[in-house]
Design brief:
Pfam families: BTB, BTB-POZ_ANK-like. The protein is mainly alpha-helical and about 550 residues long. The protein is built from 21 helices and 6 strands.
């Protein structure tokens, strides 16, 4: 649509916009760019110039503009005002009052006179005028046909019925989105509203839907809902669409097709769906897809853990996870039994290869499940079950290290979880876990460092050390002295538990001496001389 700009003045201005007739016989809705450019170019609030006097108002004859005289004070009560109450037209622009007002200090926005006016439509063929008063002095006049608006707008029909029979104009104040108000009136002349929405984006259609609701324009609302039901929602659009549609639903407007995208009629659909998803991931033989989906599901479950409303679904999810853990454990034990058979190493490659490949896969599945359980603070039961896998631990040493070392990653993750307080197993469980699986972990440690991309040596060593230090002092001593012998032989191929060793050392050799000294000072009389330990370090 062509755009004609009048001179930039600070007085009240009216702007006629050329008409683009639609197949329905009415003017096209103005484009968003036209409104933005008009408001930016003509609104004096954007670039005030109090020092320079206002230029003279000039009228372009070929445009035949209609200049409005508006009082400085605007009614605070929003609503629609009849033509009998307001005078909104004059062919002669006024000068004296605006000049005096603009030289004074800037008043509040709501008290400013209307500065920008645009007119749409053919006054000669219309029988009604709608005046939209926006914020910051933006005013739009629409020459329309009363029968069209009454037929499409329940709100306008009700307001016209309240006015005198001879009234031919309506004024709508405090329009937050004048551009969309104008477009809504234009859409009342369209037979296929949905076709006009095809080129719009979701954000703009939501604006149209909001104003259409205010007008009671049901066919437009229905077209907006059909549009929203059909188009993709990207990023934050989903939350905006859902909130808008839920608001309409709360007011009794039917919107089920749109909401079906984000909600289900089936109660608790995740009860069967989550176990199915876990089962599909665990049984996948494609490495990349399995790895990526494990990461995705883990991330999504972590998001669910942060929702208070998700607490009621915890038992259902944990039940599915432990069912999968049991299945993986049974499978892993069966594979270990096959691989530990005396003649297994001599079998043909095509016979033993499936077993060799399936062991790390089952170990990785268990590690993933333990990760989920630890995030949900629900891994204590698995720690007890893993600590009791005595047969699996005894078969561990009979397998080649290249086939078995992935299993030690499960043990390492449990130690990390205990060190981080993600799980709180009992003392007996912690003791049994160390007794059953610490030695196999130390034997596989070198392979874990080099063969597992997610293995973090410092984190694992800290977890092992903290787990040991939760036991009684005598058991700490037994485990750490056993570790010391292995560490002095293997070096970097063994976990470095020096920090835990230092803590145990201080607990064993320094704390009793410090406590004894403290008791001596407490038992001494206040008059007794105080021994300076710095001067007598050997006493």
């Amino acid at each position: 649509m062509a755009e004609i700009r009048p001179p930039r003045v600070n007085q009240t201005k009216t702007r006629n916009v050329p008409i683009a007739v639609t197949p329905e016989g009415f003017w096209c809705c103005p484009s968003p760019v036209a409104f933005q450019k008009t408001l930016k170019a003509q609104n004096p609030l954007n670039k005030p110039k109090p020092s320079s006097p206002p230029p003279k108002f000039t009228v372009q004859k070929e445009q035949a503009p209609i200049t409005e005289r508006k009082p400085t004070h605007i009614q605070s009560r929003p609503g629609i005002v009849s033509d009998d109450q307001r005078d909104f037209g004059s062919d002669t622009p006024g000068h004296s009052a605006p000049v005096a007002a603009e030289r004074a200090p800037r008043p509040k926005i709501e008290n400013l006179p209307r500065k920008v006016a645009i007119e749409f439509g053919e006054p000669g063929t219309s029988d009604m005028k709608v005046i939209l008063l926006g914020r910051q002095g933006f005013c739009v006049k629409l020459s329309v046909h009363k029968n069209v608006l009454v037929e499409n707008s329940r709100y306008i029909a009700d307001k016209l019925s309240e006015q005198q029979s001879g009234s031919s104009s309506l004024e709508i104040e405090d329009c937050e989105d004048v551009e969309i108000y104008v477009e809504i009136v234009g859409l009342m002349y369209c037979k296929e509203i949905k076709q006009r929405l095809i080129k719009q984006n979701v954000s703009r259609v939501l604006r149209i839907l909001k104003v259409a609701e205010l007008f009671g324009f049901n066919s437009c609302m229905q077209s907006c809902l059909e549009y929203l039901e059909a188009v993709p929602w990207v990023g934050e659009e989903e939350e905006k669409v859902v909130s808008s549609v839920l608001r309409l639903q709360g007011e009794g407007i039917g919107v089920p097709p749109v909401l079906k995208r984000v909600s289900s009629d089936i109660s608790k659909p995740h009860k069967d769906t989550l176990p199915q998803i876990i089962d599909l991931v665990l049984k996948s033989n494609e490495e990349r897809g399995r790895r990526e989906m494990k990461s995705t599901v883990l991330k999504l479950l972590r998001e669910n853990n942060d929702l208070p409303s998700y607490a009621g679904s915890t038992d259902i999810c944990n039940e599915a996870l432990y069912s999968s853990c049991k299945s993986c454990l049974n499978s892993l034990l069966s594979l270990f039994r096959q691989a530990a058979e005396p003649g297994f190493a001599d079998k043909p490659m095509n016979s033993k290869e499936p077993v060799v490949k399936q062991i790390p896969l089952e170990a990785d599945n268990l590690l993933w499940l333990v990760e989920i359980l630890a995030d949900r603070q629900a891994a204590e039961e698995f720690a007890l079950s893993w600590a009791g896998q005595l047969e699996l631990a005894s078969l561990h040493s009979k397998l080649p290290i290249v086939s078995r070392y992935h299993v030690s990653g499960i043990t390492a993750r449990l130690f990390v979880g205990i060190g981080r307080s993600e799980l709180l197993p009992s003392k007996d469980t912690r003791q049994l876990l160390l007794q059953t699986w610490l030695e196999p972990l130390m034997n596989d440690y070198s392979w874990l460092q080099n063969g597992c991309r997610s293995f973090d040596r410092k984190v694992v060593e800290e977890g092992i050390g903290r787990t040991i230090l939760t036991l009684p002092l005598e058991e700490q001593q037994s485990i750490l002295l056993s570790w010391l012998g292995s560490f002095l032989k293997a070096g970097d191929k063994c976990p470095n538990l020096q920090r835990a060793f230092e803590v145990w050392w201080r607990r064993t050799f320094i704390r009793p001496y410090s406590e004894a000294q403290g008791n001596i000072f407490q038992d001494s009389s206040t008059t007794s001389p105080v021994i300076d330990l710095k001067k007598h370090p050997h006493e």
